[in-house]
Amino acid sequence: MIPLAVPNLAGREAEYLQECITSTFVSTVGPFVGRFEEMVAEASGAKYAVATSAGTTALHAALVASGVRHGDLVIAPSFTFIASVAAIAHCGAQPWLFDVAADSWTLDPRLLAATLEAETERAEDGILRHRATGQRVAAILPVYTLGIPADMDPIVALAERYGLPIVSDAAAALGTSYKNRPSGALGADFTMFSFNGNKTVTAGGGGAIVTDDEAKAKLFRHLTTTARVGADYDHDMVGFNYRMTNLQAAVGCAQMENLDLFLNAKRRIAIAYRDAFADLDMVEPFPDPDYVRNGHWFAGVVLRRDFAGHLPDLRARLREAGIDARPFWKPAHLQAPYAAAPATAMAVSDDIWHRVLTLPCSTGLSTSDQAKVIEVMRNEIAKS
């Protein structure tokens, strides 16, 4: 089976893991954690990075550090992996779900501007509230879908106008850029990266936040290390045990040494699919806005609307040929836990989610294996 996305562990991962075992630093204390944080900060263009146990825990703690609390609303795109909105729910808050822009699959800033103008008000207490429910609007959580940074300049301007912090879910966007600015330096208060096994760079799991604000970085680190004060068992607030282990960081360091190589491979794979299917009327390419350096985390196709019903059968035939191809995210507004959340119209999200087919895109994907995927795809589409 040609897998969808598996780690590329051809670097110094085994060497660094052996160092952890030899030194006995296998838990949350050890030199690789600090080294990994420095590498992530540098790659993201931010001053500070704090590693965590997962991307989801990083989002949760960043929202808490940004003041999100029970009963609040947090603006987020509906077309996202479920963890983005789960992090909001973990705060006792509720997502306010927005549609995405068709050219990027990220939070639509024009829709955001119009909706904030029409559906919020500044109450007598000075708090921005959702007019229909009276809930406090507490933050904006853009998602950098597929490693495509959201259109952040207008989003940051709106956040400043309305006094809202930004926590960006850049899970798959490490090493990307927006208008020639790196993904960790786009104006968000916190930006999260994930190092899950299917990400371009993995630590076998884990996450990190980056920020340019030293006080925010210190607060986040304090929250994610049980809010412990000093060497004794004193804790000054409700904290979380969200630390990355030295073992994970060791793998992450080895991976970061090959970040540019991996990003180039992702881009090569995505371009090869785009060019190979350019003449087919039945499929469209994934978005690739010209104002970003796209991370191309996943590659694949979008089936034409009148061909979308063939997706399950096409996927099954690819699997029979030894090719792992999968659908993509089901939007949050269609998920049971968030069906009652406030939401905008979802013209784009409803249109695209059931038409997406992701194709093998591991950074170690061979030219011959990709050629097989392309050949089988073209043959099967021709039969449909």
Automatic annotation (TrEMBL):
List the Pfam families hit by this protein, alphabetically.
DegT_DnrJ_EryC1 (PF01041)
Q: Which UniProt keywords apply?
A: Pyridoxal phosphate
According to the UniProt record, list the residues that bear N6-(pyridoxal phosphate)lysine.
Answer: 199
Which GO molecular function, any one, fits this protein according to its record?
A: transaminase activity
Enumerate the InterPro entries for this protein.
DegT/StrS_aminotransferase, PyrdxlP-dep_Trfase, PyrdxlP-dep_Trfase_major
Q: Which residues does the entry assign to the active site, renumbered to this chain?
A: 199 (proton acceptor)
Q: Per the UniProt entry, what are the Gene Ontology biological process annotations, in alphabetical order?
A: polysaccharide biosynthetic process
The family database entries (CDD domains) matched by this protein are listed as: AHBA_syn (cd00616)
Source organism superkingdom: Bacteria
- Family, per entry: Belongs to the DegT/DnrJ/EryC1 family.
Q: Mind telling me what this protein is named?
A: Putative pyridoxal phosphate-dependent enzyme
